[in-house]
Amino acid sequence: MTHENRRLATRLIHGGVPSPRHQGAVAGPIFQSATFEYGGEGDYHDLKYIRLNNTPNHVTLAKKLAALEGGEAALVAASGMAAITTSLFAVLRAGDHVLFQDCLYGGTHDFVHTDLPALGVEVGTIDGRAPRTWDAAVRPSTRAVYFETLSNPLIGMPDLAAGVAFARRHGLVSMIDNTFPSPINFRPPELGFDLSLHSCTKYLNGHSDIVAGAVIGRAELVEAVRRKLNHLGGSLDPHACFLLERGMKTLVVRMRQHNESALRLARALEAHPAVTRVHYPGLESHPDHARAAELLDGFGGMLSFELEGEREAADRLLRGLTIPIVAPSLGGVETLITLPATTSHVGMDPDERRRMGIGDGLVRVSVGLEDPEDLVEDFERALASLARVTPVARA
Q: How far apart are CA 251 and CA 184, in angstroms?
């Protein structure tokens, strides 16, 4: 049995590793070389060159990522946005039409609604939870449909199984940003998605110290993305490749704790009188809970919530917390907290942002690996001053 056919934790440690290992090194070396000796390659994209994303560090990572999600092939890029934008460039041309779910990460939203139309690509929006309405949005020029497994920042889950069937029915390329759940909780190629995209900056690396992206999926599509990426130049440095591979080895154990701690905090927040709404699919009250429970192996480390008093209360909460770091990004070992209206979605029109449900006081939390009881106690202390209640005594 090859390592690629073994279980997730084993694939994370051993998948993609060359055999024999380089000089017997247990930890793969960093090939910090921009160029390599010519080996008779007949295609430009096969030349060994750092910008062509094919150094030994890149190759090992790509094989590990493909094995991890069950994709035919994979590649790594300089950032999550490099992976997303280059993938879209690879499948779309001027005059094409593409469909996106309605709630997207702010960076993706800005690119989709500003840059793509400027390049002659028409953009349509669909309600990810209402698949019966999707057929009406398709045009003869529609080429692709794009989802997020768990939407940023409202942590909603579209009907992904219907999304795969919809794409196949209309001959569309199905694309999905799988950053929030990570491959531990969901593996899109197994469901039938053509391309699975990641910001490896987040859970895959897990230590808040690099920026990277990944594309996983059908071999011919990944190759098209790779060739486009080679021309655009969004290559990942070998040292970042090394750090990403090292970070991925602990992904299973990290995600187990993220899943457990986020659910614990979500339940505590839902029960608190100062909190009006919690967005976390692990809660039975979440509108997508049944779908998430069916498709996901865990509900992830991301949640968001709303408070009585909205923005003013949110600002006071952030000042009162002592464990979470007030910072954008997510997926690291430390708990991060932010207001999407001032960070990830600040570029959106305020009225459009509020129409999507992203209010000025929405609080997003990336639950880290601290003790969950400490996190809950810290949030309860900070919330107590808002609700004028006494924190629950703990044994």
A: 8
CATH for 237 = 3.40.640.10
Which of 11, 105, 280, 353 does the annotation list as catalytic?
105
Q: Are residues 72 and 157 in the same domain?
A: yes
Residues 165 and 208 in one domain: yes
Cα dihedral 33, 35, 40, 43, rounded to 10, equals: 120
Task: Tell me if 302 sits within 8 A of 177, measured CB to CB.
Answer: no
pLDDT in tens, 30-88: 888 888 888 898 898 989 899 999 999 999 999 999 999 999 999 999 999 999 999 99
Which residues span the domain enclosing 17?
3-248
- Active site includes 177? yes
Nearest 10 degrees: CA dihedral of 178, 350, 277, 126? -50
Helix (H) or strand (E) holding 124: strand 122-126
User: Do 320 and 175 share a structural domain?
Assistant: no
Q: Which of 96, 177, 288, 378 is catalytic?
A: 177
Asked whether the beta carbons of 325 and 335 are under 8 A apart, the reply is yes
- Please check whether residues 177 and 307 belong to one and the same domain: no
| 103 and 226 assigned to the same domain | yes
